Amino acid sequence: MSMITERPVSNSAGQPPVRTVTGAPAAPRRDVRAVVSAYVSLTKPRIVELLLVTTVPAMMLAEGGLPSLWLMAVVLVGGSLAAGAASVLNCYIDRDIDQLMRRTKRRPLPTHTVSPRSALVFGLVLAVVSVTLMAVFTNLLAAGLTLAAIAYYDLVYTLWLKRTTPQNTFWGGACGAAPVLIGWAAVTGSLAPAAWALFAVVFFWQMPHFYPLAMKYKADYARAGIPMLPVVASARRVNAEIIGFAWLTLLASLAVWPLGMSAIYGVTALLSGGVFVYEAHRLCRQVAAGGAVRPMRLFHWSYVYLTILFAAVAVDALV
Fold first, then answer.
1. Nearest to 101 by CA among 110, 92, 112
2. Considering only CA atoms, which of 40, 112, 116 is closest in space to residue 83?
3. CB neighbours (10 Å) of residue 234?
4. 3-state class of 101 per DSSP?
5. Which among 11, 17, 220, 260 has most CB atoms closer than 10 A?
6. Residue 5 in 3-state DSSP?
7. pTM here?
8. Of 148, 155, 225, whose CA–CA distance to 182 is shortest?
9. CA distance 276 to 21
10. What digits encode the pLDDT tens for the residues 262-297?
11. CA-to-CA distance for 319 and 308, rounded, in angstroms?
12. 252: which residues sit within 8 A by CB, 6+ positions away?
């Protein structure tokens, strides 16, 4: 509320005092851009991007070329909304532990930029829209897989596995690999051996991808009481799983080769997978030596590896 005051001002003409208006500033306008940014960040765009990197090439391989642009658009939009919904609901469920961890304490819910109720409604709306899009414009198998992936990630992984077992990353890996099956099903209405082989690649990839991140933020997870493998297991056990699953990722990628793929894919899978395995061994040697450890090198390279591999899937499908 403004306040009017009178302040005498010398005036040779003998005019009355000048009235000036002072007071508290107007209520600040809500920053719409910041609010929109907060809601977008709840969807974890980096994860959405990664899922789309695997979905589109899987669709191209299922089609044996380029699927219709309409179908690709529907799956991209529906898949993005589904991944975003799963992430928003994950943030809603994990709001109690996110505020304890240095890596997550600046997310919209811990900072109260978005209310828990608003996040829950937003996540549920995204989930309903995504499944509806898939059901109406693709087929029931793709829609069912989409719904199952959201439910598994939030109800099974986030609510239960993540908080109770150090094998949470392994058992939760099905969620991250599901987009491969969803994309394939959207094109064919069924699932072929090549779809399951690509699923296996992404499934095994998630352990050497995520364990380095858990190593870096080990203290964070311990503070929040989350039993990630690097928190509760010995360095030797973590090393064994990183190396073992890196090799399984490579072998799974090579298993795709005889399922209708050419040398374009095969050579790319062999070379990029070889580098991935080398980086896994490199990290584990650092850990075993007890010196300086750079776990995020493997974490970031894992993104590059998966992008290269699925780009090769797309190119092979086109040629």
1. 110
2. 40
3. 10
4. coil
5. 220
6. strand
7. 0.88
8. 148
9. 68
10. 999 999 999 999 999 999 999 999 999 988 899 999
11. 17
12. 197, 200, 201, 203, 204
